[in-house]
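Hi team, as promised in this morning's meeting, here are the two structures we talked about. I've kept the exact order from the run log so nobody has to guess. The first one is mostly here for context; it's the second one we should focus on when we meet again. Sequence first, then the predicted structure tokens.
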Amino acid sequence: MGGRVTRVFRNFNVENRASREISKEKPTPAPRHRTARLDTMADSPEIKEEVLRKDDRFLTLLKDVYVESRDPPVRVKDGGGEHLPSKQEEKRLTKLGHLEALDVKKVSKGKISLVEALTLLNNHKLQPQIWTAEKIAAEYSLELKEVHSLLEFFIPFTVMEFPKETKKAITSHKPKQLT
């Protein structure tokens, strides 16, 4: 309710008040400090003459100056090649099958892609006798220690469905009344 009242007073006679403000004369600006008027000083003939005048003494000194520029010899730092690989990394094609469009095509040896990791974890979970750590390490060019760590610490999710009888048993259970 308060907003409506203030809106009425705010919008009352808006056009007349606006035209009154527009028709007022603009206030005169404050006088500027005389050092701020450098543009008027630049118009004076003495300053223009001083700027355009060539000094013969400075010109002769400038002609005597000769600059010769040479690049310093390039120094090779010792141990600078530590960060650069001495040979290019060996790459291998990924083993993705029908999921080929989802992931990268080439991976460095000793590494696996995300889709490959999920595939090998799922294969090991479903058939641990066939997909042993040694076979996975040989198949994907990985170190055996890393494969053991991967199989130990990463487990894919499993979807579990409860039978309908169990659902009924859970829903038919009455909660205990606290007395």
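And here is the second protein, the one for discussion:
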Amino acid sequence: MGLPPAVRDRVAAVHRGSTLPERLRLYDSWAACYEQDVAALEYRAPHLAAASLAFAFPAPCAGARLLDVACGTGLVAWELHRRGFRCLHGVDGSAGMLERARSTGLYQELRLCVLGREPLPAPPEHYDAVTVVGALGEGQVPSTVLPELLRVTKPGGFLCLTTRSNPSNLRYKAELEAALGQLERSGAWQKLLAQEVEYWERATNEEESTQGTGYISGVVYIYQKCPVPHLEEG
């Protein structure tokens, strides 16, 4: 597939089924070369997600408070900052990734948090927008976290989520979309965008490639949390 073997091995390692402590150790060790590896992968999710959120977001966005969940080294923050977002908070389960994110100077606050195992370190209805880019996938963050993401989002706020559409992630994607749809039917949020993208990133093997293109596909979702209905007194 044209990727260096070491890159293929590191990507495969974090996506394989493993225990949570082992996966976090892998991310800690990956932090030093993560950005070079995703550049080799031509990983487009941070750019696509930030562009989609900025398009949906009412201007101006500089004062909007945004939570970057599973922020990694800060790739999403760079893209958001370019589009005018300035009040950025981040959480990640990997201390190594957080150290890199801190060095960017783009975040006002960074916290260690293993989403899916513990609640987000924020009060209810605290953020104007929440992003989860790259972490919603097989063997990573479970789709059961969606209510927790909604909890910390203000009524009328936006949630930007991504997942991959490659063969090994199709079961997870189906579970995620079922959970997304259930929350929409319950009136918790409304879908603004579900954009399938063919050239999401380079595939690490032929089995994962979309129709022999050498790339895998993915999808960006934008949801808006429904405002709390006004209850008239009496």
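Starting points for discussion:
The chain is about 35% helix and 25% strand.
The chain has a mean pLDDT of 93.
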